[in-house]
Amino acid sequence: MLIRVRKTSDVPPSEITPRAIYLDRRRFLSASALTLAGAAAAAVVGVRPARAQGKGEKLQGVVKGPFTTDEAPTSYQDVTSYNNFYEFGTDKEDPAKHAGPMRTRPWSVTVAGHCEKPGTYAFEDFIKPFQLQERVYRLRCVEAWSMVVPWVGVPMADVLKRYHPTSKARYVAFTTLLDPAQMPGQKRPVLDWPYREGLRIDEAMNPLSLFAVGLYGEVLPNQNGAPIRIVVPWKYGFKSIKSIVKIEFTEDPPPTSWNMQGPGEYGFYANVNPSVDHPRWSQKKERRIGDGFFAAKRPTLPFNGYGEEVASLYAGMDLSKFY
After folding, report:
1. Which of 40, 58, 180, 214 could cysteine-pair with 186, CB 3.0–4.6 Å?
2. How is residue 255 annotated by DSSP?
3. Can you point out the beta strands (E) in the chain?
């Protein structure tokens, strides 16, 4: 018998909104926001002219996973048209506009570093042995907006253990595809391309950490990081690297893109900490995409509400210093 233990990261079932009703509500809010406040207001609530470009292919054999919030998911349209993916442009609708032609098959992932089974693996072989799970996670952006997304993927720990990291593997580094012909944003020196991210290995092995390959039960759209990305729900969104082509087990902390770009603004750990302001704005509150432009902002929760599951990873650390 499966007993579900309610955690502080959960929301009462009474707050769940059926997807169909939520989509109708979003259409109403979209029209209202555009009429009353124009394009600027629309940008804040996540209403975008870009259309989702996902193929809509259903993923088979998906089961409900653990650690799932009961909170109502953000609409599919907003999740797939309001994105940070600078490889396709710096505006929120650029990924949905420009990512569609990117080729995600064939795709391979290289595993390197301190492990016993390095090599280059076809995407299908990388994911195939594992049961796909749907997990509804919050995603909180450092820009003070958030979403609730029904991700589909496999526990990161299950995948990484397959390659037998050695005792020297203290960190896991991730690298995004570098291909300016397909990713026009890489033609501009916005960041030091390719995009790189990293986790401490105990963070990567935490049961919450996910390799995502889909959302809303469908194949991951290009603008959301196809064919494979990571989701680490207690961290700010820039930690969730997309379109991964390389994973490396390292002994030392790996360089990470936004930390290299602005070390005073983007820490290596990137844990959601409302008490540490970004130098240019507060992190104490957030706007949930889909709530509407005039809705009150929500208080931001430490570790994005997942403290019960992950706070022990940082016992004894000064989280104002290690942000």
Report:
1. 180
2. P
3. 63-64, 108-113, 119-122, 133-140, 145-155, 171-176, 196-200, 210-215, 218-219, 229-231, 244-250, 285-288, 298-299
pLDDT digits (tens, 9 = 90+) for 257-291: 999 999 999 999 999 999 999 999 999 999 999 99
Whether 22 has a pLDDT exceeding 90, the answer reads no
Q: What is the pLDDT of residues 124-142, one digit of tens each?
A: 999 988 999 999 999 999 9
Identify the structural domains of the chain with CATH numbers, from first to last.
Answer: 18-313 (3.90.420.10)
Report d(CA 166, CA 117) in Å as an integer. Answer: 10
What are 136's strand-pairing partners? 150
Q: State whether the Cα torsion 80-81-85-87 is positive or negative.
A: positive
The 10 Å Cβ neighbour count of residue 8 is: 11
Q: Which whole-number Å values give the CA distances from 258 to 56, 236, 263, in the listed order?
A: 31, 11, 7
Please state the pTM of the whole predicted model. Answer: 0.84
